[in-house]
Write a structure and sequence with these properties.
Layout: H1 2-20, E1 25-30, H2 38-53, E2 57-62, H3 65-74, E3 81-82, E4 85-86, H4 90-114, E5 119-123, E6 130-134, E7 138-142, E8 145-149, E9 155-160, H5 163-170, E10 174-178, E11 180-182, E12 188-190, H6 193-203, E13 208-213, E14 218-219, E15 228-229, E16 231-233, H7 234-242, H8 250-262, E17 267-272, H9 278-284, E18 291-294
Parallel strand pairs: 1-2, 1-13, 2-10, 5-10, 13-17, 16-18
Antiparallel strand pairs: 3-4, 6-9, 7-8, 11-12, 14-15, 17-18
Length: 295
């Protein structure tokens, strides 16, 4: 009986949040272990379906770096990175697009549909969803040395055309977006998934941006587990980047949050995707989890 009462209390705690977020758009960046571990993959799919069923509009943006690297290894091609960005030559962009659009996206769509949702896969090329431009060669620090690096077919976002996403969402579908953009010449470009999520949230005037990662959130001192920052103001975030306390793969996540906040996205969160049902825990509980980045 106590277990049943506890379940009822959970529903009661969630009720005001369900009411507050009804018909609101939430952009979710899906990555890390949550895309690899089979139980976590199921957990995320079910969470997203539940969000849709109770009246929210989840939009899923995904990466797929681990899958890309595995395919490159199988074809005998070494993965190279500079400042956390994949160096993407002409052969590599074909592999990236093959993995993100042809494999990872379809697997996520299949999983959501398998558990009762209505998911539709998109890439940034569909309906010119993500217009980008090729990043120019720049000086980056590689192995402790400054070098002029041409990242190749890596793109920076110029414009998001969100109409196709809005149309699908309004008709009851869950858009699942792979982060291949297109330039004005029709070339495919590899774009950081965190940046796409931030720009997508801004273009959709989303209520929330949520980024799933493989850490609990942002720490004042990453060596001290008790120093998790639950609420991180913009000024402090920028200062931590400058001082190197926020570094490598966490930088684009924080940049995505700050970009979204500039365009009236009300809440941005970096949460631990290794925790089952982490999306529900953040949205529908009083305590929440992870780090909320705020203005």
């Amino acid at each position: 009986m106590q277990e049943l009462i506890a379940k009822a209390e959970i529903l009661i705690e969630a009720l005001p949040y369900i009411r507050a977020f009804a018909d609101k758009t939430i952009v979710i960046k899906y990555g890390g272990q949550a895309m690899i571990n089979e139980e976590l993959k199921k957990s995320v799919a079910i969470d997203i379906i539940l969000l849709k069923y109770i009246g929210l509009n989840p939009i899923l943006v995904h990466g797929g770096g681990a899958e890309i690297t595995r395919l490159m290894e199988r074809v005998g091609k070494k993965a190279e990175f500079a400042n956390g960005l994949r160096v993407t030559d002409e052969e590599t962009i074909e592999l990236v697009e093959m993995v993100l659009v042809g494999k990872v996206n379809k697997e996520i769509v299949r999983l959501i549909n398998q558990y009762g949702g209505k998911a539709v896969g998109l890439s940034g090329k569909d309906s010119s969803l993500i217009i980008a431009q090729k990043r120019m060669p720049e000086t980056l620090v590689v192995d402790g040395e400054e070098k002029m690096i041409d990242l190749g077919f890596v793109g920076d976002i110029v414009k998001i055309n969100p109409e196709v996403v809005q149309t699908l969402s309004s008709q009851g579908y869950i858009p699942v977006i792979s982060t291949i953009g297109v330039n004005l010449n029709g070339e495919s470009l590899n774009i950081n998934a965190d940046h796409v999520a931030g720009e997508m949230a801004a273009a959709l005037s989303a209520e929330k941006l949520m980024l799933l990662t493989d850490v609990e959130g942002i720490f004042e001192d990453y060596k001290d587990p008790s120093s998790l920052i639950s609420s991180l103001p913009r000024a402090q975030a920028l200062d931590m980047i400058k001082k190197g306390k926020i570094s490598e793969g966490m930088i684009p996540k924080v940049e995505a949050c700050l970009k979204a906040l500039e365009h009236d996205v009300r809440r941005t969160h970096i949460i631990d995707g290794r925790i089952p049902h982490s999306l529900l825990l953040e949205i529908f509980t009083d305590e929440g989890i992870g780090t909320m980045v705020i203005d």
